[in-house]
Amino acid sequence: MAYLCVDIGGVSLKYGILDSSGKILLLKVLPTPKTLGTFKDALRKIINDNRQRINGISISAPAMVDYENLAFYNCEGLPFINGISMEDILGPENSKIIVKVESEGRAATTAEVWDGALKDVDSGILLTLGNSVTGGLAIDGNYIAGAHQKAGLFSLIRDELNVPGSQGLVRSNCSAINMIRAINVVDKHDDVYDGPHAFGLIEAGDKAALSIFNNFCKNIAQLMFNMQLLVDVQRFAIGGGISSNELVIKTIKNAYTDIVAEFPQAQQVLVYPEIVTAKHSRETMIKGVLYCYMEQVNNER
C-alpha cells in the first residue's frame, strides 16, 4: 500500500508517495499556489497523476486543524484555504479516497519521534525555525496534543510584554526569516531573503550581521530556557533550513549556557538538556505526515 503525503508550506509545496513503512517512493517540490483556484488545480492534478498508486492522502500545513471537518484555519501564509474542507478542495472525483489533515508542527515532531532526533528519549521538544517557530512536545514517544488538541502553538507565545501586537510574539522575535531579512537589509543586499548571503556575512565576522544573528540565537535560547523550566525535557531538536549550519546550534547552546549562568537558582535545579540538530529536513518531513495519517486511521489518538 502507498500513500500521497503533502506538506504545504508558504513558499513550496512538497509531496511524496510513501509506502506503509515510511519509505519514500517519489518526492517532488512545487511552488505553493497563491489562490484557491490554482491550489485546487495543483492538488487534483497530483492525485490524478498518481491515482493508481495511492490508498490514502495525508496533508499538513502551518495551521491549526479542524479534524472533524478536515480543514485548516489560522493559516496566515495561505489564508484562502482557511475553513475549507479538504474534501471540497480535492473535489467529488476523489471522494472515495481516505483523506486526513495534520498541523505542520505535529507532523514534524512525529517524524522526529518515529525515526529522528527524538527517537528513544523520554521527553523532547522540536523547534523548527523558519518563518515562525513550529514543533511540539513528545513524552515517552507520544506527541502531547493537549486537552483541546491545540498544544504546540509556540509562535504565539508572548516574549516581550511591553511590545504591542505580533511584534512581541515568538513568531516575530524567533523568526529565522526575519533574522535573514534584517541582515540583508542592513547590508543593502538586493534579495532580502537570501539566506546564503546572510550567513556568508555572519561567517565572515561582519559586526552588524553577527549582532543580529546572536540576538536571534539568544531569543531561541530564552524560549528553550522557559520551556525547560516548565517541562524539563531530555532533549531539544532544532529543525528548519538554518539548522544545517553548525554555527546555529553552537551559538544557541552558548546563549542557553549564558542565560542559565545569570540565574543561580536555575543552576541549582535545571539539568542542562541535550541540544541537537533535527534529523528530518523539509523534504523528509513528509514521513511525519504519513505517520500522523496512520495514527488517525488506526484510531491511536
The global form is globular
Order the strands across the largest sheet as they lie in space: 3-2-1-4-7
User: What structural class results from the helix and strand content?
Assistant: alpha/beta
Uncertain ranges: none
Number of helices: 10
- Ends apart, CA distance between termini: 22 Å
In CATH, the homologous superfamily of the largest domain goes by the name ATPase, nucleotide binding domain
Major β-sheet profile: 5 strands, mixed
- Beta-strand segment tally: 12
Predict the CATH topology of the largest domain: Nucleotidyltransferase, domain 5
Keywords: Kinase, Transferase
GO molecular function: kinase activity
Pfam families: ROK
Protein name: Sugar kinase of the NBD/HSP70 family, may contain an N-terminal HTH domain
Describe this protein with a few key phrases:
Nucleotidyltransferase, domain 5, kinase activity, ATPase_NBD, alpha/beta, 12 strands, kinase, Sugar kinase of the NBD/HSP70 family, may contain an N-terminal HTH domain, 10 helices, 301 residues, five-stranded mixed β-sheet, ROK
Characterization of this structure:
The chain is 38% helix and 22% strand. With 301 residues, the chain is α/β, with parallel strands linked by helices. The chain folds into two domains: 2-104 and 291-297, 2-Layer Sandwich (Nucleotidyltransferase, domain 5), CATH 3.30.420; 117-277, ATPase, nucleotide binding domain (Nucleotidyltransferase, domain 5, 2-Layer Sandwich), CATH 3.30.420.40. The strands form three sheets. A five-stranded mixed sheet has the order 3-2-1-4-7. A five-stranded mixed sheet has the order 10-9-8-11-12. A two-stranded antiparallel sheet has the order 5-6. Strand 9 and strand 10 (142-143) form a beta hairpin. 38% of the residues are buried.
